[in-house]
Amino acid sequence: MRTLYLLILSAALLALGACTSSASRERDAFDDARWQHLADALEHQPTANTKEETQPESRLSGELKLEELIRLAELHSPRLAAAYEKWRGSVRGITAATALPDATFSYSEFIRSVDTRLGPIERRFMFEQMVPNPGKLVAWEEQAAGEAAAMRSNFEATRLGLREALVVAFVDLQALDERLRILDRLVEILSTVELVVETRVTASLAPQSALLRVQVERELLRSERATLEQRRPSLAAALSAIVGAKVADNATAAALSRGAARPLPEDAKLAAFAMDHPSVQEQFARAAVAGAKVTETGWMWVPDLIFGFEYMVELNDMMIPPGVAKDGWGFTVGLTIPWQVHVNLARGDMARAEESAAKFMVEQQRLDLQARLAGEQYAYRDAARLIELYDETVLPKARQTLELVQNDYTADRASLTDVLDAERALLASELSLINARADLLKARARLESIVARDLATIN
Known about the structure:
Elements: H1 2-17, H2 21-30, H3 36-43, H4 51-54, E1 63-64, H5 66-76, H6 78-97, E2 104-116, E3 119-131, H7 134-202, H8 208-230, H9 232-243, E4 252-253, H10 267-274, H11 278-299, E5 305-314, E6 328-335, H12 341-410, H13 416-451
Parallel strand pairs: 1-4
Antiparallel strand pairs: 2-3, 3-5, 5-6
């Protein structure tokens, strides 16, 4: 009997105290103080009904700063908050995964008493608890820890994706302001040309149609400017959706960076960092979950322990001799019988198929990242090439051409068509340079998201 008690006590202690190293590691990772500010922000997060009232529209107006937007996005982004809450819930799920099944308590009132040697039984109380075998408990905890690791990686991937989307939207706003400044400058140039043409028309040196052509060209530029300006609220709305805080419709952004493009780190280094991306780690974690399920199916063949206590109340204690207990106590020990062989075999096949699929997903995620990395490397280098071409060759010549043609027109050595063609060539070159600068910044943001670090920190 003592051996039986020790066996039950050992099983119960294993069930209640099972804690794997992976579970401890995931709990410690979540307790990292790095994201405590996010937890504090979520705790004081306003409800959806009061959020607009507590965040005035003017909060993010004027000239926006990228670093400030990134900080606000980490505090207010619903997408990041949802990923954090999933992570938090999965960490708490580690404890829930190893919980014992609920105990059962039953009460029996006999309508017709059961006669025993000491008298009829009036009622009976029973308590019963099932304790899964330790192998199952460890496998369940490993699954929960793997899910927590997947949610941790998902949170990191969400944070990187959030920053990437924010930079891309911010660059779009920067490019919009740059295009508006170029159109304003070209409108001023055409206004100067208009004065020259108007003077020549007054002196009967040019037809009235020449003046009308210049005026039409200027109005077309103004119309294009108005079209671009009407796009600003949509860009502000895109930023608001990413940041999670209202961005004013009239918000502006700093000028695009005009420095020379930095060369990218070595391809091998970028590829190595990309293979360690949080999205890859998430798939690894899901493969670990599937592996723990395979382990669990192996323990399905091992019986679980059932123990319980029983208390019986005698109906007539007058019949019980002195010195004999008036009520009956009982102790029950049992085992489950895993007799459904076909079910256990099916569970094993299902778990192994899931593990195999998870490993394939790891490989696919790596291939996707390699393809995306190659595409963004091309986009970055091509944008850098175009910036150098337009900044050092095309634009200086386009500006010089327009200036020379204007002078030649004043001296009656060039036609108005030549002036307008030169103006259009300058506009196209200016816009192409802006597009190249924007593409460079976007490609850099995407590359940093792929390698999960600032490119400037990679030696």
